[in-house]
Amino acid sequence: MIADRYEVVGASFVGGMAAVWPCNDIVLQRKVAIKVMPGSAEKRRIRDELSALLKMRSNHVVQVYDVLNLNKDLAIVQEFVEGKDLFDEGLAPKNKNEYLKLLWQIASGIANIHDLDVIHRDIKPNNMKVDPEGVVKIFDFGLARDEGPSAATLGFVGTPGFAAPELYRHHVTFTAAVDTYAFGATALFLGLRDLPPELVHRPPVLSGANYFSALPFKLAKDVESILNTCLEESPSIRPAMRDVRDLLAKHLLHNRHRALIVFDGKASYLDATRPSVVLRLASIGEIGIRYDGFDFLVDRVSGEVFINNSPVAVGDHLPGACVVALGAPERKADRKYITFDLSHPEIVL
Amino acid sequence: MSGPLKPSDIIGDRYEILRYVGEGGMQFVYQAKDILTDRHVALKTPKNKSATKRFRRSAVVAAKVNHPNVAKTLDYLKVGTQRYLIEEYIEGSDLKAALLQETAYLDPYLAAKVLHHLAKGVAAAHHAGVVHRDLKPTNIMVIGGYSLHELKVTDFGIARMADEELREAVEGGDASMSASQTAVGALPYMAPEAIDEPSTVGPPADIWSVGAMMYHLLCGQYPFGQGLRAVPKIMTAKLPDPPEFLSANPQFAPLAKEILEIAFSCLKKDPMERPTADQLVEKCSTLCYTSSPRQQGVVCDFRYGAWGFIRTPEGSVFFHRECVYGPMPVVGDPVLFASYDGGGADRALPVVKLTGATD
Fold first, then answer.
1. Which one, of A295, A320, A294, A318, lies nearest residue A306 by Cα?
2. At A265, which CATH number?
C-alpha cells in the first residue's frame, strides 16, 4: 500500500529511469500507475513540469492524476492504460488511412505537451499504447532528465534510433525539436517496421534523403515532405508539432467539409458531391467558390468583390468565418453580402 | 449563505479554502488551493445526509472519464464525518448563468457550438461506461461566456439523489415541488424513462437531456414546459411547435432547422430510436457554424428599418436587419453580436437583442 490509498497489484517495471508500480486507487476505484522518482523531491524543474502536466487534458497523453511526497522521493500518480505498446507487430497499420490516423494521434499528443512548454524527451514506439478503445496514449515522460550532473557529463541521454543528433553532443540541451525528431523516427519505424542503418548509427548520419518514400503505402507529397523535415539534422528546421498534426488532420478530413453560403435570402451548401457555386450581383460583381476536398477556394472573380474587406484573387482561400461583399464600400447600403460558414468535421478513430 | 467552510480553512492538510463559489441542489462549492501542487481546485461538499450517501459514487463515476469537455476529478477525501470532492477549477460559470441570463435563447451558430462540445463530452462519458443521468444547464460549465472558449460537463452521477428527491416532490405535490431545487432544475430535461423507471436509465436518457437542452437554448423555452405539468407532456413525448423566429430569417433558418432536427431526433419516446452520442458527434461534424467572439453594444442608429449602427467602447459597428436573429432591436436596445471587418465600419453578424432571461 502506498500513501494509505494505492494498493500495489502487480510487479513493478522500469519506465525511463524510475520504477513504475501498477496500483488500485481504493478511494476513486481506478487503476493507476505510480512512478517513483528517487531523490527528486527537491527538484524544482520536475515539480514545475508536473504542475503543467497536472493541468493537461489530452486524448492522446496519459493523464497525470496527482503527485505524492514519499520521504525524499517524488511519486507521480498516472492513468493506467491497458493494452500493448506500438512496438507490437499486431498493431502495425494495415493501410495508409490507419497509418495517418496513428501518426495524427501521436502528433496531437506531442503538440498538446508542447503547448504547455513541456518536452517529453523520450518519444518512441515503446512509450505509446493503444487502449481498448483503439486510442493512442503517450506515456513515460523523461521529466527534466537533462538536469543534474549525469546528463552534462555523460553527454547522452536517450534511445538510439529515436534520439536526435544534437543529443550526442557534450553539453546536451533539450528543445521541443528533440521530440519532433523522435516523432519522425517513430513515424518511419511504424511504417517500415525497422529503421534504416544511418538512423540507428550513433549519432545518426542524416543525408536529407526521402526516407518516407520507402513505406509500403504512397503518401501525399506534402505529408511525405513534412515527415522528412522532422528528421532534419538542424533542430531549427524541424516543423512545429502542431503544424504536423494539422497537416495530417487535413488529409484525414479530405472531402469531409461542408460550407453553408447564404446570399440574397437563399442558402446553398457546398461539399464533395456539390463542390462549386457562382454568386452574382448584376452589373456589380461575381464570385465563384469551389471545394477541392481540402479548402474552399475562389475559382473566378470579376467586378467589385471583397472578402472581409480585402480584394480577392483567383486561388484565395475562404477563411472559416468570413463575409464576402459584392460592391465597393462607396455603394454603402446597396452592397450585397454573402455569408460563408464552415463545418467542423471530427476525425473519427 | 456560504456553507460550512470559510476562507483559509485547510481540508485534509492539503486544500486551503479561498472563497465560496455557490451551491447546487446537493452540494456547496468552493475555490481552494492545493498546497502540494500549487494549483487552484474546486472543492465540493455535500449539503445533507442523502447527498452524502451518493457523493463518493459520483466521484468514482466521474473519475473514469478523461476528456477536455468533462471536468477532471482529482481527489476525494473523508475527514471525520465530512466528505470532499476535489475537481479541476473552471474559471467560468454554469451554462444557465453564462448563456441564459442576458438572452432567453442563443443564435444558431452559438447553439451549434454548444451542441457540438456537449455531444463530445457526453460521448466520452458513454465510452467510459458512464451515464450522467442529470444533464441540465446548471451542470455544464462555460468558460468565456457568450464567446464560449470552453465547455465542460460536471456533477456526474448525482442523479440517483435527484431521483429520490423528485419522487418525494411528486408525492408531495406542487408545494414540495417548488421547494425542491433538483425537481425544478432537472425535470424539464428528464427523459420519460427517467421519470417512469429511474432504475432502468441508460445512455439514451442523457441523449434526451441533450435534445431538451438544445431545444431550450435554440428556442428560449422548455420543450415540454416546467413543473409538474411538464410530466404528462414528457411521457407522451409530443414534440412542441418551435417559435416562428427560428425560420423567419433566411440567413439563420437553414442552421436553426438542422439543429432543431437533431434536437427532435433526441426527443423520441423510445430510447432505442434516439441517436447514440457518437452519432450525435458525427451529426455535429456536418453543422456549418462560426465561432467568432461575441461583444455587447447598444443600437445607436437605425435607418429606414433596414440598417444602423451599434455603439461599443471600441467604436461603431454596422448592422443590417438581415443579420438580426429574433426580434428587431430599436435605438437604445442592448445587443449581443460578433463583428467582421466590413470596410468603413465593421459589420455585425449575428445580432441578437438582449432580452433577459424568460424565467
1. A318
2. 2.60.200
